[in-house]
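Class, look over these structure tokens:
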Amino acid sequence: MVEVVVVAVAMMVMMLVVAVVVVTVGMIVGLVVVMEVGVRLVVVVVVVMVMVTVGVMVGLVVGAAVEVALVVLVMVLVLGGGSDYNGGGSDNDGGGGSDDDDCGDGGNSGNGRVVMA
């Protein structure tokens, strides 16, 4: 459960960081355009809106990539060898023991019925 929270928090932080960086760059570009070229405020608003959209989209992509990487890392480190080996052991025990017993009992009961008939 802790791993899920860590992954979710890391994803949100990465999304916010990337979005804030891209939006800040957009605002700086807009201000430079206004100061140097003397264009109206509408251009700044459009540039900032475009940068906000791009920032959110890039933030989502980066956040998703970080999430996938963290999930894989957590699965390898935390859930890695121990649970896989244990799972293998329980599969072997359950499969081998119960299957062999069931087959043996079925054969014996079948022979018994044939003999009685």
User: Anything to note?
Assistant: The chain has two domains: 1-79, 81-117. Helices lie at 2-37, 41-77, 81-116.
